[in-house]
Structures are given as C-alpha cells and as structure tokens.
Structure prediction request, 161 residues.
Amino acid sequence: MKNLIVVRHAKSSWEVPVHDKDRGLTCQGIKDAHLVSNEVKNRVPKTYLFFTSTAKRAANTALIFAQNFAYPLESIIYKEDLYTFDENKLEKFIRSFSNTCETVILFGHNGAITDFVNKFGDIFIENVPTSGFVHMKFETDDWNLINRGSVKRTIFPKNLR
Prediction:
C-alpha cells in the first residue's frame, strides 16, 4: 500500500517582477498554508518523506507544513524535477520513489497536480487550488506500478475559512 499526498504550493505573488521560480508567497498564501497544514497534521500517516519543487513558492509551502507537522526542516528533499507543470513528468518522478517509503508528501505545481490527481484518482477534481491537499492511496507495494488509486481526503482552504 502506497500513500501519496500532493499539495499545490500556496498562493504566490505576481506583483514583483522576478523569475517564475523566485516568486514568493502572498500573505493570504501563508495563512492558507498554515490553515491547511494545521487541519491535516494529525490526519496523515505517522511516517513520511517530504519532497518539494525547488521553486521558492513550493519550498516555502513545504517549510510551513514541515514546521506545523514538527518535521525536521533539514529532512525536506528539494528536487528540480518537481518544478514541472506537466503531469507526465510528475508521474515519472513519483514512479521513481524507493519502495521502502510507504508515504510521500509532495509539494508542486498546477496543472501537473490537478492532471495527475484526475488521471490516477477515483474522483474528478476540476482544479486543485493553491494550498490544496489531496491524499491518494494505491493498492501496490511498488511505486513504479501505481495505477488507479483512491482519493482518501481533500482539504482546500476555502472549506476551512
């Protein structure tokens, strides 16, 4: 059994003219990341790995979740391959996980996240919003063999406000 939790990065700012990877979070994005992470921190499996895109907005979202989960910040795994908007690249990355890991919490970007969830989940989600949390379960012991899974939980900021 494999658990995959995908989190779309929190709302980022377009107001400062910086490269896409360098965009930071808005105040609302920071609040939403805290809101969602505090809601789910006791609803995730006990052991997991955090993987995040190297983009500032995704990395900062992962840091907020890690702080609220009491997850060691130095244990967050930063991966350039997660800076993708393509669900096929995201799928390839997920299939490469070590089978010794049962649960992964991954911080990334849309449309990769929404498209991945809709390709592999058993419910349709029109759009995973910023700070959106989706917990999926796969009936396999091999990440490379993931197929249709079940969506166990979705938590979106608008439902918590």
Summary: Residues 45 and 137 are 11 Å apart (CA to CA).
